[in-house]
Amino acid sequence: MTSNTNKEIVRIGLIQMACGEDTEANIKTAEQGIRQAAGQGAQIICLQELFQTPYFCQVENHDNFKLAEEIPGPSTQAMSQLASALGIVLIVPLFEKRSTGIYHNTAVVLDADGSIAGRYRKMHIPHDPGFYEKFYFTPGDTGFQTIPTRFGKIGVLICWDQWFPEAARLTALSGAQILFYPTAIGYQAFDESVAEKQVQAWQTIQKAHSIANGVFTVVVNRVGQEDQVNFWGKSFVSDPFGEVLVEASAKEPEVLVVDCDLGLIEETRQGWPFLRDRRVDAYQNLTRLFIDQNET
Amino acid sequence: MTSNTNKEIVRIGLIQMACGEDTEANIKTAEQGIRQAAGQGAQIICLQELFQTPYFCQVENHDNFKLAEEIPGPSTQAMSQLASALGIVLIVPLFEKRSTGIYHNTAVVLDADGSIAGRYRKMHIPHDPGFYEKFYFTPGDTGFQTIPTRFGKIGVLICWDQWFPEAARLTALSGAQILFYPTAIGYQAFDESVAEKQVQAWQTIQKAHSIANGVFTVVVNRVGQEDQVNFWGKSFVSDPFGEVLVEASAKEPEVLVVDCDLGLIEETRQGWPFLRDRRVDAYQNLTRLFIDQNET
């Protein structure tokens, strides 16, 4: 592998928070984190999934729909002003009210001039004990996309998307240099025995997205106990080789700032040229749920 | 996650070898390893990629085509007799001469009665310093498939296939419970500085195939210095959660035998039901090499 002679540094900020019931307080915490990261030179800053509230999907309660808001709306507007004032790109995950009866788990990307660069609506929706998201969120229809910003071409995916290599691949193939995963994942009291295995699997598969695609991966998770779920933090950044550049605490809120050299993407992809050798002539069945043996 | 009450144990054998110039000696070593693993109760035994010879793809030399043989042919026949005598399923990677001028990097799966259960022809072919495979091997046309055997439904992929989540996914979607990766991977003197990173990336992405698909992954690599390449061994088995059950030496030949509980597949896929939530309506572009931005 040749040494990298074309450095192209972008400084990334991750805001790992603990959320309480007071929405205004959560937003203030986020803003403080953003200002701290920007003060350290961060150019693209990512908040965690549904950063304004506790992770309300632990229960199925119609009252929670009032937490949703339109995009653009008050939160987008406030965050746009902040992005513009600080000259940063900001990834803002929101509970989106799209229309009467259609709600999404969404992330808005605000460019450094405060304009909306793009939005992503969570495509893969979980629904498991403590994570009842199919009750709230219509699966997204944005598809997997790259959003050009002042400081780089980025892709945004959200939490459960983490487990699907297809999502990372399609986003990278559309040009993204960095994959951002705002996240709310934790373990529950009843399965603490497998907690460490879950954390390892979660890190492994996201590092693998970096490796398979030759991109940076940025994961921003919440932290702290909320009702039945202990959110495990450990936000991290992986380089295109799958090496972890920085990792946050499993217990405490934390603001991480790290330099990513986008020049490494070309170097990595030349060294291990996986994208050269994909067998796109043989991948048609990826659009099937299962390939039944008596059909093949 | 519920505890697993439906155990379905299959015992797997991995034969990690160092190869010399003497083909007969390599085959004898393989046979000894197979007998050793079978003696320990292994039911499905996997040899490493191109186990009969040194890794000849370090150079582009037409003389090496004479190493290829037809399937069925002498090696298949000898190994069929061994599989039948021991009552084991055997995965035998061979340099296949398919026809005049068409050669493949192939793995034959022999069932426990000695019959040919199936064959896989390596779909993704590398071609990089020291690994000049596009010179020798026509990319396979078998596609990604599951081969039913007496002891389980298995998929075989070969080496470079390791880096492509599509290959693992399609094989798992066709019903495979275990993915086998016969392999010949190592590092070269000139990039020893990145050797450890390469090994980590290699382990990470294959553990991720287990996680994404809820299957066992079995990787059988060669070991030892051959010309410019130091093959790094470290053959391993990952469970459906991505946990490494057993791992071989980085320096020495080794026969590994390990029990895999196929009942864990159902348990894992119920606990983290990724296969439930794939967005097959949004994956069409996986059959494209790149998604150019001015087209979308």
Question: How would you characterize the overall build of this protein?
Answer:
Two copies of one chain form a homodimer. The first copy, chain A, is an alpha/beta fold. The first copy, chain A, has one domain: Nitrilase/N-carbamoyl-D-aminoacid amidohydrolase (4-Layer Sandwich). Chain A is 23% helix and 28% strand. The first copy, chain A, contains five helices and 15 strands. A six-stranded mixed β-sheet of chain A has the order 5-4-3-2-1-15. In chain A, strand 2, helix 2 and strand 3 form a beta-alpha-beta unit. The termini of chain A are far apart. Chains A and B meet through helix 3 and helix 4 of A and helix 4 and helix 5 of B.
For this entry, give a set of tags.
homodimer; 296 residues; alpha/beta; Nitrilase/N-carbamoyl-D-aminoacid amidohydrolase; six-stranded mixed sheet; 28% strand; globular
| Number of DSSP helical runs of chain A | 5
- CATH architecture classification name of chain A: 4-Layer Sandwich
**Major β-sheet of chain A, in short?**
6 strands, mixed
Level-1 CATH class name of chain A: Alpha Beta
Rounded mean pLDDT score of chain A: 95
What is the H level of CATH, i.e. the homologous superfamily of chain A? Carbon-nitrogen hydrolase
Helix content of chain A: 10-25%
**Tally of discrete structural domains of chain A:** 1
Low-confidence stretches of chain A: none
Strand order of the largest sheet of chain A: 5-4-3-2-1-15
Distance between the termini of chain A: 41 Å
Question: What's the gist of this structure?
Answer:
2 copies of one chain form a homodimer. By secondary structure, chain A is of the alpha/beta class.
